[in-house]
Amino acid sequence: MDKAGVSFDRMRTFVRVAERANLSMVAKELGVGQSTVTRHLKELEEAVGVALLSRTTRRVTLTEEGSRYYANCLQILRLVEQAAEEARDARQAPAGAVRLSCTAALGVMHVTRMIFAFQDRHPDIRIDLNLTDERIDLVREGVDVALRLGPLADSSMKLHAVGESQRLLVGAPAYLSARGRPERPADLSRYETVVMSNVAGSNQLHLFSPDGTSLMIPVSGRLRVDHGLAAREALAAGRGIGPTHLWLIHDLLDDGRLEVVLGDYRPSPVPVSLLIVPERAAIARVRLLVDFLAAEIAKLPGIRPS
């Protein structure tokens, strides 16, 4: 292996190409010409002595050797960046960028204001906020921290449990007056339900009775949405009833636009978690943001701290 040919710049170029699978996109991100990207890849492959990428007119894919090399490069580059960050943090106030991914409705209604307050305290920290309900690959997308609602699969990410989000079954007063208010859980199957299409098992309503008994009620509705803010609007407009997070509709309850249905029966709560890329967890600005968000989210209506 030609060690002189293995530079951090070439490794960074290779990593971004492996993640984006598009040379022109990477060239634009890095602010260089596509010929520079191609040259970096060629020089890196010559240095390590194996083909790392398979290129056609349409696609760029990793070879088997390239996949292993990508994983090692990613770890090396993150460690190099972390070392520089920690050295800089020891000398001065935290500065730089943090990439945060957040579930969309929570981000729009609450987290954006939290970020404003955080940046007022730490004006040299930049926040790149990505709002999505998709379970993205943090490392591949270059995200440092993700705020997630719901159960988590096994993950190599560092987990900071924030708490549980309490949910209520709600409906608009006009809708409930027109249809009659349900008196027991079995009645719910006769009502229109605003269904979240991106939530597994949303064709059944999982409720807990006052004595802790678990109930599963089949539900259906003519309206299916994949965004919490759309569900909020649909419920307020009287398009049906539905389970929803208290932090999402607490203002609508306060001003009477929504009311609780079968208040003694509660939908199952939802875990709230912050996931941190392990190699980024020790960086001061990342730690500051995680601690700040955890404390502020725990104050939201319906959030029961862990």
TrEMBL record:
<dbReference type="Pfam" id="PF00126">
    <property type="entry name" value="HTH_1"/>
</dbReference>
<keyword id="KW-0805">Transcription regulation</keyword>
<feature type="domain" description="HTH lysR-type">
    <location>
        <begin position="6"/>
        <end position="63"/>
    </location>
</feature>
<keyword id="KW-0238">DNA-binding</keyword>
<comment type="similarity">
    <text>Belongs to the LysR transcriptional regulatory family.</text>
</comment>
<dbReference type="InterPro" id="IPR036388">
    <property type="entry name" value="WH-like_DNA-bd_sf"/>
</dbReference>
<dbReference type="InterPro" id="IPR005119">
    <property type="entry name" value="LysR_subst-bd"/>
</dbReference>
<dbReference type="Pfam" id="PF03466">
    <property type="entry name" value="LysR_substrate"/>
</dbReference>
<dbReference type="InterPro" id="IPR058163">
    <property type="entry name" value="LysR-type_TF_proteobact-type"/>
</dbReference>
<dbReference type="InterPro" id="IPR000847">
    <property type="entry name" value="LysR_HTH_N"/>
</dbReference>
<dbReference type="InterPro" id="IPR036390">
    <property type="entry name" value="WH_DNA-bd_sf"/>
</dbReference>
<keyword id="KW-0804">Transcription</keyword>
<protein>
    <submittedName>
        <fullName>LysR family transcriptional regulator</fullName>
    </submittedName>
</protein>
